[in-house]
Records
---
Amino acid sequence: MRIAVFRTRRAFIPLGVIYALTAALLELSGLPSDILSLSVADAQRISDSVKNVKVFGPSPLTSLKEDDLLAFSLADDPSSPLSSTSASPVIRVAGANDRVVLGAYWIDFVSGFDQHDRFSQWVQSQEPGQILIRHEFWGEPLNAISLEFKDTAMLKEIVGLFPEIKLVEPVAVYSKPKTMSIFMDNIHAFMSTREKDLSNVTPHKETGVAQVHESLKLFGKGIKVGIIDSGTDYKNPALGGCFGKGCKVAYGYDFVGDDGKSPDNDPRSTCDGHGTHVSGIIAANSTYFLGVAPQSTLGSYRVFPCVGSAPNDIIIKALLRAAEDGMDVINLSLGGPGGWNQEREALVIDMLSEKLGILVVAAAGNEGDMGAFEMGSPGVSRSAISVSSNENPYSSSWYFVASNSSKVTTGLDQNQPRKIPFLGDKVMDLNTTLAQIAPGISGNVTADACKPTTKDIKGKIVLVRRGDCTFAQKLKNMMKAKATGVIIINNLVGEPATSVSKSGLKIPVRSISREDGEFLLKQMQSQSKNGGIRIADGPSPITVKNTVGGLLSNFTSLGPDSELNLKPDITAPGGNIWSTFPLSMGGFGSDSGTSMASPYIAGCAALFLQGRPKSEHNSVAFKTALQNAARPILDGNPQRFNGPASVLQQGAGLVQMMEVLTSSVSISPSYVSLNDTLHLNGRQTFTITNLGKNPVTYRVDLLSAVGLTPFERNGTVAVLPKKTFATASMKSASSVQTIRVDPGSNATLDLDFSGPKNNPLLHVLYSGFIRFRPEKLDKSTPMISVPFLGMKGDYKTVAVFDRSFGLR
């Protein structure tokens, strides 16, 4: 019996558990022991039809020694649970830390099983309340049903009665995306503080969307965009103010209701702003804010309740409903652990894309602090456009000012006070003074507030530096000391920390930049003899320049997928994005996350479909156009790495919609996954197609990006992968570095790649761009950069097992 290999977030453990350990694994699997009691010598049969049943459960890692384990590759195992030809069923059991719906299971049948009525009738013949049919997905690509059991022992009977079953696994859930929000109290206060043309609050100039609006007069008219999210407050005037035929939000369905159990036909949600914010990025149309495709029509499909997660069977249901409603584009600003493009959500996306031509866009994820290989499902789908995030050059933010507490109480009548933007809680009791835990003003203080303090901070707001322990630990210690609020000073130069997690702790928290934090610490030191300093909030948001604007967001997840395929695909603005919120939350506000970058590309998809009506409308054509036109983003440390950031972070680079719609040249493939250097896809053939009226000549060269070392020397995953120089090599198979393409024709070029000289035992992920540089640069013949990715070393020597990283 073979046990599947799973990826771990923290450690890579050689696996392939030998047969003699099977019984120990099964005892911890969670299903009744009579189902799972299989021995090496004489396995207890459930029935003749399942005599070869394979059970995958939580692994007792602490009891296994490395000498007892034998690594193997899942891809090489023809009997793996991902193989559609497997003749025996596989049962997967949820571990304690798995994100699943308790008691709910998928039952997958072999391809061609058509006795759906017989199965449904058997389920209905059971005692009332024993089995609940959640959702049915008969036919390709799933041929599956999701059920909820009062007693999971019934799985034994089902597997015995239906030999056509090939897989049983829990219904997984996706957590609601976490973002950092800045809400506003009213629209008019916002408008009184900034320009009428909104040029600084949207990133449309940097992406070419502004030029598409102004020059090409494209706004997404006639294109339907489906949004699978937490619902939409369509009563916001910027989103049309109504729902149904003739409205901007013309389609939709609520699969969950506020309580998660009350579906209905109205997708409006006011308890959560995520879906409304996403909707506005795509299609808001008002004098206050303009989305990417403001004339597009929306479908809103609610899968998140007010509190809780979204099961993957409901997400699939929403995907199919959006397709049924005729959506041209579907946005998924959600995701979860996965990494394998065989996940069921990914298979459904592939089907919708390949058979119906729907363009599906998905967030890359916000696990930038978890290291490489963090691309999750459904973004790992071959057909989905996976989107990473870069920072908006400008943002709108609430702010506060500091004052000498002995002289000024409001903080608003000083001469040009320093305005300190913040993220986090708008409501904080400011009727007190500031305090600090660690002494001094240096930003290099370590372990600030990581241990309980003996300082008297009761009733005060505390300045705490970020780093060395979790936010929750710092906040818990401050709560024990009875502080009334905490202001987190970022430990990195740039913006406030955008990922402060309160972990359910009820204490107001704000996040500010390192520079502003050092300013406050200096003020506190100079005013210590005058009673200290206080802070007071400004009356309305301000527009501020983002000091890391244009760079990749530090929260954006790193690729590649679990099989070394290049992901993410493209980058769009996702840091500090202003858009719509429910009216009950003020109507407008800022959010940060790849949840914001994904709808930006979904809006671009609407512009693409409208602006190129004679082109092929499928995911391959759209991805090719996006990646060919993208602009590589530089690394955030130009003093050491004077070149592009890793392709693992940015894909092909920042979207450039004007070039997408005006270029007459395309190059395919638009990205290259080289695999590892022991199994190198070294020979790559590129096809250059010229649809223009004049011949074009391109010179080809290679630009290496920053290399990343994904693992620590002890084998654990590097939370912050070390940057390194990793220079790949490329040469033309014909020794020709230029290629000419006549109008209305295409030409091919063979290029041979070899990996860098880094130590293969470090498994460095190297990447870069193959640059096709035209002799004459203009809007119809731009420079095209094709991203590539590879690993130095042998990936198959890294076997992994992790119950937290997806069920597969």
Note: The chain has a mean pLDDT of 82.
---
Amino acid sequence: MRVPLSWLREYVDVPADATADDILASLVSVGFEEEDVHGFGLTGPIVVGQVVDFVEEPQSNGKTIRWCQVDVGAANGGVRGIVCGARNFFAGDKVVVTLPGAVLPGPFPIAARKTYGHVSDGMIASAKELGLGDEHSGILRLAELGLDPEVGTDAIALLGLDDVAVEINVTPDRGYALSLRGVAREYSHATGAAFRDPGDRPFEELEQPTGGFPVAVVDEGPIRGRVGASEFVARIVRDVDPTRPTPPWMVARLTLAGVRPLGILIDITNYVMLELGNPIHGYDLDTLTGGITVRRAKEGEKLTTLDGRERTLSVEDLLITDESGPIGLAGVMGGGTTEMTEATRNVLIEAAIFDPVTIARTARRHKLPSEASRRFERGVDPLIPFVAARRVADLMVEHAGGTLDTETGGALFTEVFVEAVELPKAFVPGLIGVEYTEAEITGALERIGCEVTEDAGQEWIVIPPSWRPDLTDKWTLAEEVARITGYDRIPSTLPIPPSGRGFTPAQQARRRVANALAAAGYVETLSFGFTTAEQNDLHGSATGAHVPSIKLANPLDGQAPFLRRSLIPGLLQVAHRNVSRGFTDLALFEAGVVVVPEEGVTYGTETVPAPAVRPDAATLAALDAAIPPQPRHIAVLVTGNRIAKQPGQDAEPFDVADVLDAVRTIAVAAGVEISVTQGERAALHPGRTGILTVSDVEVGYVGEVLPAVAAAADLPGRVAVAELNLDALLARAGDRVMAASLSGYPVATQDVSLVVGADVPAADVRAALVDGAGDLLESARLVDDYRGPGVPEGRKSLTFALRFRAPDRTLTAAEATEAKLAGVAVAAERFGAAIRE
């Protein structure tokens, strides 16, 4: 919300010397977030000048310029010669002149310069050049604004260009602050300055005609029990002149507030919306057929909105209609057939209260956010529409030459009831942790507009103001007390955790794994959990066949509407983004959840139980069953060079061996032993893919990405990846989190070369050696895979380096050999292995 300071001063006493930063500091103290300060970005001298005369001079480039003599006042040098290319002004016109030394928005400094054979001693400015809009059709003629100032007058002050606006972030629960009325009230809360409510008008001024123009709300099937419109005010102003200029002060304020001026009638409705917070819509009364009916749309009904788009409507959409059909999306955007134009002579003013949920759903359904929907979906003061409608009518009478019709109009409204809240006296100090006095609590609540009465001495009965729909319980009231009395009073004392608490074993294990990868040189990344069905099929299954995936009903990105089954697509996107920015040597990892629905099971169909009522065990079980499995995975990706090229050292690229090392790092950190056997994955290179198992249970895979898949991700060179089900991995680690004791006795080393069939996995042979050698075998590591002369066709020689150690003695060579041969015997039994001669 942008708040022009001159406008703010109308409703609250702001010190004359207060700067924009001072006002922002005050608003921050009551809970608003500072965004920015906006101004017109110009400095003087910028003055009122009068065109004495001019000569039109055709140029060789086909353009005709005017060599003007402009009187800017004796104090500013009298008559100056200025070159101007515009042709919409005449001798005698008073215009805005930017003199040398001035700076226009851009910044665009003005200086005397030679052009078209003359020295132009300044510039005659257009509205766009002054920052007063996008219109660049010609010079700004002050007579068109209804102004006739003295020559030499400071134009910056005349046009309100010396004003600035502060911008604050308004959270969704504080929609009342999307208005000058709300922000001025909050500034008053922060500083104690006197507040003048622009919505406080005597009832006799607001007397509303109830005849002559029919208005009806027909909502026979309210959505979720909520009626679409609870209040609708229609006032008529006749004989307006839509060609009249918008007053400069109003143009300046709207521009600073971020609203583009569009003509006097629309500008007035926007001005009142910003002032009071109630969106206003104006209709060309002569284009309406009959009265107005507010109703739900019929399925498939059409409406062309003000942006020129034809929209297909839903039964949940709330419409403004006349006898011809829909003429507007209630609370979102009007229709094109009844909009106010330069031909409008009679205006119907609409001020209403619409259901926030209905408006929010309509705006999102049609992807049509607007300033009106932004306010309605946050809640508008139900007592303000009569004031807002009359305020618009008064401004149209004053500035558009209209006449208020006091005989014809319409109004529908319901009684405004605000539910009281019980607030125990000890609750606020107990929740906030500050020893507030009773006077401080009641005073803070009364300052924000609450009615507070004491009940039985132990609690207060609090009725929130009509403009604060967010105050619904004692917790929100307590937050208001803390906000108004000052957050700086809340002590910054850290709570003391109960003894025996800390990370769970699963949390500790996950951190241990992540820290181990980070220590090994991998960089942790975080990617979005959304992807395409094709990516899920490619990376979420071994064969690439179609697998079930969860599709979002309202995705952030329509091209990626599915929840991921694998972390690899996200890592590929991260790698692509880095490579495109010149970072080509990457070692990445990510830990996160994936969504793996089961075949044939439908998820997300359970009805959400009513709020404020705790669901029973059966309902909770049904809700849990409606959520697909979401295991936590961990994945790594490498591409580029492990060692960069340097003097005396060639570059060494990453390959699958590096990812296997990462897998071993994960295994050690998790406290498990991972076996690797050759396998297949749809996205990985045949022959360079391994299946990872723990205790014969598959927990993941490792391999080199297919060149075509890497090219599709715009990644040059080799890409190797691994992905493991971290939950399954840690579940098989059990409670083994203690480091093993180290033996003080020396190790005995022996090698063994076994000849087996070429199709026998080395991991299976190693497992046989380990099983047979028994507890004395400390480690078995494959060091060679040989196929060639000396080894029969169809067979291979696998060499393992064996380490033996006993915890209580020094092993003899005979004991180590005996254990080795026991392992060889098991390998021979299982695979026909023989010691290579």
Note: The longest helix spans residues 813-831.
